[in-house]
């Protein structure tokens, strides 16, 4: 039966395991993501490790393993390695879409340009939750341009140092704020650290 | 033509996955160790650890009626990938079995991966699949024979209307 042998070899050559304990680990990462969204701009460190496909960082991988499932379409830039796509398809079972507007999670690994925030799903007035969450890999969350954040979840102000955001980020984020209750939420990741910015988080000039 | 061979390959794989899933755990265990005694099995790592969960079984009355939920059953699944060896790419194997036998699921997944390797296919087929298929047929025949003992034939008298 020679025909049986070529079936699954091609896409599985680089498949990696996901979380060690899928339930416990996903719960811990979910808790960390919840903390990050409750305190925008505060850095969270990844509590667990997972298999990590080529092209994705530890934080992006863990967040997608935790958040993405068959109900949440994920958008990836076109030139992300096939290994990363196969990994997400196997472990999350999430649809990978080409159309940015259809995606619930827009994942931008290191070295890729961030799409315009306005092109991502903004939600509907009756269902503002049907908006996209962007997961963006940045060069650093410890050095670089300092953003002063204000808004719900921040007592006075929170400063966040980021390297790797696009030059027009402040303007596009202000536009995102004005659309409230519509708009996108943002998770910034770097290595095994991440922080969140919600659509209500204001960036001071 | 391409899709036809792919269909045949899928049918062959479905057939051995069925035999592995329906095998009795101790029989599979014995066959697995017999295979391991003959030659060392290649190393493998777990892609998805054996995990148990529930699956809803749906059915159709008479094969044509509306679908209804028959009930839930426990299912254990597992996925492994065999280590790359000379000239052999990594091969993934999967298993879905009824019940909560994590060992059964893991062994079935490894055997599925081995069956996809040309170097192992015939050996696994002879040592594992053929005896398990034989046992499955015998079990089904014994069950049918037991049921047949209490079989009742109904005859309807002609009513003479036609």
Report a brief summary of the structure.
Chain A is of the alpha/beta class and 205 residues long. Chain A has helices at residues 9-12, 22-38, 58-67, 82-91, 169-178, and strands at 44-45, 74-75, 96-97, 105-108, 133-137, 140-150, 158-163, 185-190, 193-197, 202-204.
How would you characterize this protein structure?
The complex is a heterodimer of chains A (205) and B (162). Chain A has one domain (21-204): Rossmann fold, CATH 3.40.50. Chain A is built from five helices and ten strands; from the N terminus they run H-H-E-H-E-H-E-E-E-E-E-H-E-E-E. Chain A has helices at residues 9-12, 22-38, 58-67, 82-91, 169-178; strands spanning 44-45, 74-75, 96-97, 105-108, 133-137, 140-150, 158-163, 185-190, 193-197, 202-204. The model of chain A is unreliable at 1-13 (pLDDT under 50). In chain A, helix 2 crosses helix 3 (58-67). By secondary structure, chain B is α+β, with helices and mostly antiparallel strands. Chain B contains four helices and three strands. Chain B has a three-stranded antiparallel β-sheet with strand order 1-2-3. In chain B, helix 2 packs across helix 3 (102-115). The radius of gyration of chain B is 21 Å and the shape is elongated. In chain B, 25% of the residues are buried. At the A-B interface, helix 1 of A face helix 1 and strand 1 of B. Chain A: Pfam families: PhnH.
Key traits:
heterodimer; A: 205 residues; alpha/beta; Rossmann fold; 7-stranded mixed sheet; 3-stranded antiparallel sheet; 10 strands; 25% helix; 22% strand; disordered N terminus; B: 162 residues; alpha+beta; 4 helices; 3 strands; 25% strand; elongated
């Amino acid at each position: 039966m020679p025909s049986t042998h070529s079936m699954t070899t091609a896409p599985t050559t680089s498949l990696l395991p996901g979380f060690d304990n899928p339930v416990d680990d996903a719960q811990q990462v979910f808790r960390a993501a919840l903390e990050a969204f409750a305190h925008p701009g505060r850095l969270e460190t990844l509590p667990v490790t997972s298999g990590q496909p080529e092209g994705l960082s530890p934080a992006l991988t863990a967040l997608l393993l935790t958040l993405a499932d068959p109900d949440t379409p994920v958008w990836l830039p076109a030139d992300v390695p096939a290994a990363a796509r196969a990994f997400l398809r196997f472990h999350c079972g999430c649809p990978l879409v080409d159309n940015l507007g259809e995606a619930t999670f827009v994942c931008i690994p290191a070295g890729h340009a961030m799409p315009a925030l306005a092109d991502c799903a903004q939600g509907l007035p009756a269902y503002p939750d049907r908006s996209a969450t962007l997961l963006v890999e940045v060069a650093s969350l410890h050095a670089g341009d300092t953003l002063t954040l204000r808004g719900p979840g921040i007592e006075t102000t929170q400063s966040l140092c980021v390297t790797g955001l696009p030059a027009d980020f402040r303007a596009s984020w202000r536009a995102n704020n004005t659309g409230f209750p519509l708009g996108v939420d943002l998770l910034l990741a770097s290595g095994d650290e991440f922080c969140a910015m919600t659509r209500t988080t204001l960036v001071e000039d | 033509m391409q899709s036809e061979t792919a269909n045949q390959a899928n049918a062959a794989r479905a057939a051995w996955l069925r035999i592995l899933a329906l095998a009795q755990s101790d029989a599979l265990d014995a066959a697995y160790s017999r295979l391991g005694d003959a030659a060392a099995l290649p190393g493998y790592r777990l892609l998805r650890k054996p995990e148990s969960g529930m699956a809803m079984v749906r059915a159709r009355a008479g094969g044509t009626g509306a679908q209804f939920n028959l009930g839930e059953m426990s299912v254990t699944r597992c996925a492994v990938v065999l280590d790359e060896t000379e000239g052999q790419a990594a091969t993934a194997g999967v298993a879905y079995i009824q019940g909560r036998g994590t060992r059964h699921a893991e062994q079935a997944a490894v055997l599925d991966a081995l069956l996809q390797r040309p170097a192992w296919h015939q050996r696994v087929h002879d040592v594992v699949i053929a005896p398990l298929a034989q046992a499955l047929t015998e079990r089904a025949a014994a069950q049918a024979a037991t049921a047949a003992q209490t079989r009742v034939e109904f005859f309807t008298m002609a009513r003479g209307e036609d």
